[in-house]
Specification:
Helices cover 28% and strands 41% of the residues. The protein has a seven-stranded mixed beta sheet, with helices on both faces. It is globular. The chain has four helices and seven strands. It binds coenzyme A (COA). Coenzyme A binds next to strand 4, helix 3 and helix 4.
């Protein structure tokens, strides 16, 4: 039975390994460390043996919820864990009082964009050339939904 637990500082090395394996431009260790501030909540999804399948990092300020990171270990992708993480994120955010949800995603990240659309996110903005990419720069799509 898979279960969710809050991420802790002790998980940083493990989530950094997953992040680096899953992303061409991964978060740094410093970014993970700074995401333990008060306004953040972050969860890991565990398998039966206690291994981390994936995680998400969110920030809630008043009613505004932002998804900063969501990641599934590459060997575990395509098995529905992205859905599991999104459902937990949205339910947990709503329980904590969020009404509006925001995120940013690389315009080339079609699997993540498809996932977000499945949960009612629509594009509400564009930051041209926001991310470094192999082609030089790529756009960030700003997406949001109402809970
Ligand atoms: C995006 C990510 C979290 C999805 O996790 P996942 O466990 O592979 O996703 P799931 O198996 O639960 O599939 C969820 C949905 O994602 C989309 N999706 C997943 N893989 C896809 C692919 N190869 N192509 C297109 N859409 C895809 C689909 O909409 C899918 O839903 P459906 O199959 O029911 O239509 C995962 O690919 C990941 O960790 N990527 C690297 C990190 C990343 O890019 N994070 C987002 C940063 S903004």
């Amino acid at each position: 039975m898979n279960k969710f637990e809050l991420l802790s500082h002790d998980d940083i090395a493990a989530v950094l390994r997953i992040e680096q394996a899953a992303n061409s431009y991964p978060w740094t260790e410093a970014a993970f460390i700074s995401s333990f501030a008060d306004s953040y909540f972050s969860y890991k999804l565990l398998d039966n043996a206690g291994n981390i399948l994936g995680f998400y990092i969110a920030q809630l300020i008043l009613e505004q919820l932002e998804l900063f990171n969501i990641c599934v270990a590459p060997t575990e992708q395509g098995k529905g864990y992205g859905h599991t993480l999104m459902q937990h994120f949205l339910k947990e955010g709503a329980a904590r009082g969020a009404t509006d949800v925001f995120l940013e995603v690389r315009s080339s990240n079609l699997s993540a964009i498809a996932l977000y659309k499945r949960y009612g996110f629509t594009q509400t903005g564009l930051r041209k050339g926001y991310y470094v990419s192999s082609a030089g720069k790529e756009d960030a799509l700003l997406m949001s939904c109402i809970l």
